[in-house]
Each structure stands twice: as C-alpha cells, then as structure tokens.
Amino acid sequence: MENKFACLVLMMGMIGTILWSAPLHAAPVGEGGATPVGIAPQEEKARKIGEDAAGSAAMTPLFREIAKSMNGSERLVNGFLQQPGAAFAENGQKGNLQTTPDQPDDFVAKVRQAVETHPSIQSTLYGARQANDSLNEADGALYPQVDFALEGGYNVSRADNRAGADNDPDGVLSVSQLLYDAGETFNRIDAARENVTGSKHAARDTAQQFCLRAISAYFDIVRLQTKVLLAIDNRNRHELIFKSVNDRAAGGAGTTADVYRTEGRLAEANANLTELTGELARMRASYKEVFGDMPTHRTRPDYIPDIPQNAEAALQYALDHNPTLAQSEAGTRAASFEYDASKAAWYPKVSVVVEGRQYDLSEPRGSDNEMRFYVRFNYNLFDGGSDRARESRAANRLSQAKERERQSRLELERQIASSLSDIATREQRLHALSLAARAEKETFLTYLDLFSIGRRDLVDVLDSQREFYQTASALIDARVMADLSRYVLLSLTGELLPRFGLEDFGWEVR
C-alpha cells in the first residue's frame, strides 16, 4: 500500500512537470531562431497556487518553507533568463544596439567608452600612426633633395713650382631631383600605403577583440551575481534541511547518519558560495580594469543583436568586412609592391643636380665660387650578390603573404560555420536545461513531500536538490554563452564595432 501511494505521488509530480513544460514546447521561435526560455505569463497563477499548496497536508511549516525556497530559486533563474528589452524590440527596433531617447542603453555607452579610452587601444592607434609616418617618409623621395655641406681638410697644391697648403673650408649647396629609378620609389610608396591600410585593419581587429572582452565582462558580472544569489538560496535551503533533519533525529524519527550527511551537504553548499563569491570579486577587478570603474548594473543588457540566418550570407559579408582578412590582403599587396621595388636594382638611376660651391669661407672672395648643373647616371655593376638576395627575399615574403591570406580566408570560413553552429547548439542546450531544471525542481518537491511522511530517503532529497542547483547554475551560464555567441559572430563579420557606434572614432589614418 505504501509503495502504491509513493508511485501515485511520483506520477502526479511527473504530470505536473509535463504541464509546466508544455508552454515552452509551444512557444514561438524568438529572435534569430532562439527559443524563448522563461516563465510564460499564464504560468504565474498556477505557480502561485503551487507555492501556496506545496507539499501534502502532512508537511510541517519548516518543510513548506523549504518548498517555497525552491520556488524562489526557480523565479530567480527565470528572471535572469527573461530577455530584457523585449517590448522595445517589438516596436520595430529588433536587433538595434543604438541608444534612443525612450530607451537609454548604459551597456552600449559603457562599452563604447571603454573601447575609445583604454590604453591598449590607444597604443594600437599610435602603431597605426607610425605606419602613416612611414608613408610620408616614402613620399619624400619624390621631391627635390636639398643639402648643404662644409668641406675642409689639408690640401697640398703645387703652383709655379712652389708647394702651398690650403686648409680653408668650402661651402657646398646642392639640389638634386630624381628623374628615373625603374619605379622603385613609386612601388615603395604603394607598399607603405598598403601597410597603412593593414595597420588600420589591425587596429580594428584589436578593438573588436577588446570590445568582445568588455561585453563578456559586462555579462559575467550579472551572471556571477545571479549565481551567488542562487548559491545563497542553495545554502539557506540546506540549512533548513539540516535543521529539519536534526529536529527529526532529536525526536527519534531520524538517524545520526542523516545528520552527518546533511551537514556534509551544507558544507558543500558553503564551499560553492565561497568559491562563487571569490570569482565575483575577481570579475569585479577585471571589470574595473576594462571599464575604469566598478560595476553597478544588475541585469543583462537590453539588446541582443540579430544575426544572419545562413552561413552563406554571413560568410559573404565577412569576406568583405572582416578586419583580420582585410589585414592579410593588405599585407599581400604590400609584399607585391616591395617585390616590384626590389627588381629596380637591375636598372640605372638618373637624377639631375644643381650644385653651388663657395671656396675659402674663412676669407670669402666674391669671385671665388662656382655653379654646376649636371645629370647623374648611376648604375651598379657589382655588389657581391646583394641585389639578387634582396629580390629573392622579397619574392619569398610575397609567397608567405599569399599563404597567410589563404589561411586567413579558410580560417574565417571555419569560424563562421562554427559560430553559427554554436549559436544554434547553445540555444537548444538552453531550452533542454530549462526543461531539466523544471523537472528537477518538481522532483525535489515530490521527494521532499514523500520524505516528510517517511516515504522517501533523505539521500533522494539531497541528491535532487544538488541536481537542481547544478542544472540551474549551468542554465545561467548557458544563457550568457548563447548571448555572447551572437557578438562573436558579429566580430567575425566585421559588424561589431559599427553596432556600438564605433565606425570612425579617430582611427582612420589619412
């Protein structure tokens, strides 16, 4: 008879689990193909009834308090899972990360400010500006070169069969203009220009990675805050269970082994709470390093971006806008120009020179000077093989750059496919974990009900409590991972910075 009663209660718990999870199966597909996870509005009334009537009539007030604590933990998790800003998204602003007067977005503003002001990004900017200075340096070869020199020394000359010394310095002013160098100068200018382009894309790539880091830090603060609250609920619930078991043992309804077992689980709950508290403290320090101040937010960001629905569209956009690939392409073009410049060594260089000389500056005489105008033709006949070695090095560098570009393209294709797969997989896992957490909560309440009337062992109650806590904790992590995977895809397609209003923030090297 007792077994039949226990089976009846378990069947009622399983039916309740199916009824709770039915709205999730019937829920419409959300933004970007994600299945909404959380409490449906029609469930609130049923949840209130379940909370007020948790347990059988034989359940003591202490056990009822334990049951209500479990329902509170479920509300905490579902509150975290609820998508913020959903009402705003329905007003035609789906996926928009820009701030509006009606919906201020502290998240977007904070991330933008962090990217614009962090020292690591500023350091990258100075690197890009160095490349621009190198371009200006290469441009200088197109203009006339003006030099002034002082020439002095000890000269011995013989005039009228008499030796005389001349150590007065001469002043020389020369102006030279390059006329022909087989395109070497123009090729080096073009190579420097491509290096500027590559530096700009490298700076954008660095900024995107930092932006992802800032987004992750923002999410992680809320994630860990919620997990700490969940751990506190878990600890408090174990304290209630320990008190109940201790009271039962004192009244002769329990054993000392039950007390020790419950005490061990309570210690485990305290250890989990301590570990999460330390992790949250470390994350706060990391957040301050990224944003420059301590976190004050307690909810997930208002906007989760929409994403391309297929790999082909995402890949095509990424091929045109991904900064890593663009940097590799610029590197290949720069190496090609450098290779063309190296071949100019086999041709002569021609320049025109105008030179004026004033003799004996220590005792200048008006007529003691000269002016020369001439064309200089310079052709290297032998340099020990240096020209050939430079050309070979440039050719190998070009081949290396082409292979790097091909590698970047293949890696980008893989990353796009993996990112889309991660998004779909994490949303599905999120839905599965939500169902599991719901079922484990109902299992705990059923076992607690049976334990209160002596129909179930304590270990079943403790194990179901542990399973719920672990699944709920994993559910919180899964929600954040699912959100972050969308931002990762945006970074691959090159859309991340524009979504945060960072299309042009003083980086463009002109």
What are the key terms here?
6 strands; two-stranded antiparallel ribbon; Outer membrane efflux proteins (OEP); 510 residues; alpha+beta; porin activity; TolC-like; efflux transmembrane transporter activity; signal
Question: How would you summarize this macromolecular structure in one to three sentences?
Answer:
By secondary structure, the protein is α+β, with helices and mostly antiparallel strands.
Would you give an account of this structure?
Its main location: membrane. InterPro entries: OMP_efflux, T1SS_OMP_TolC, TolC-like. Pfam families: OEP. It is found in: Cell outer membrane. The protein is an alpha+beta fold and 510 residues long. The chain has a single domain, classed as Outer membrane efflux proteins (OEP) (Up-down Bundle), CATH 1.20.1600.10. Helices cover 66% and strands 9% of the residues. The chain has a 4-stranded antiparallel beta sheet, with no helix packed on it. It has a two-stranded antiparallel ribbon with strand order 2-3. Strand 2 and strand 3 form a beta hairpin. The N terminus is likely disordered.
Strand content: 5-15%
Compute the number of strand runs: 6
**DSSP summary: helix tally:** 13
Gross CATH architecture: Up-down Bundle
Largest sheet: 4 strands, antiparallel
Strand order of the largest sheet: 1-4-5-6
On the 0 to 100 scale, the average pLDDT is 83
Q: State the CATH class.
A: Mainly Alpha
CATH topology: Outer membrane efflux proteins (OEP)
Q: CATH homologous superfamily name? A: Outer membrane efflux proteins (OEP)
What is the string of SSEs from the N terminus onward? Answer: HHHHHHEEEEHHHHEEHHH
* Broad shape: elongated
Domain module count: 1
- N- to C-terminal separation? 86 Å
Radius of gyration: 38 Å
